[in-house]
Amino acid sequence: MSTIAIDLQYLPNLEFFCAIWEAEEIWLCSEDNYQRKSWFNRTQIKLTNKVETLSVPIVGRRPRVPLAEVMIDYSQNWQKNHLRGIQSAYGKAPFFEFFFPYLENVFEKKPAYLWDLNLGFLTICLKLLQRPVKLRKVEKKAIVQADVDLRWLLRPGGDFSDRKYYQPIPYLQLFGLDFEPNLSILDLLFCEGPSARRLIQKSIKKE
Question: Does the predicted TM-score (pTM) go above 0.85?
Fold first, then answer.
């Protein structure tokens, strides 16, 4: 599989990485319109008693606006809340101290647009996973040339088990006895460190 077109996620979940793992190029189209109830501005982490959704606030309702024009609302103290939530969830994880500074660095850049924030996080996550894949920004008309188009298919409203990309492979999480699948890549990185790459490969659903 050579090229996969997909929409950006905020700190993407495991299904996202399973879906793009074998691609040589990932195509991203900033001309696509923003869609509510997507992963574009939200992710999920595991706290002591629950799975918590972290959402990035955006300026206005943003109906039918290109992704590249969705602005982050910095009037809300969301960055501090997200960092505190991540620290609370994973501060005692084995690889927290190693990976957390990379996240802080992306947050501190405070990009105006959510597209740039998500792209920054995707770039660093792929680096931490040691997955050398080319990220390419393409125009909407070029998407038809992609080998696979996954834009807006991986949505919060659907069940990942109904799709063909991710099968949960349990690993040791910090809280609770029950394994929570398909959380943000942060959960896997902080808990498993260098083993995260191998676990993603094992989690790719076989057709």
Answer: yes
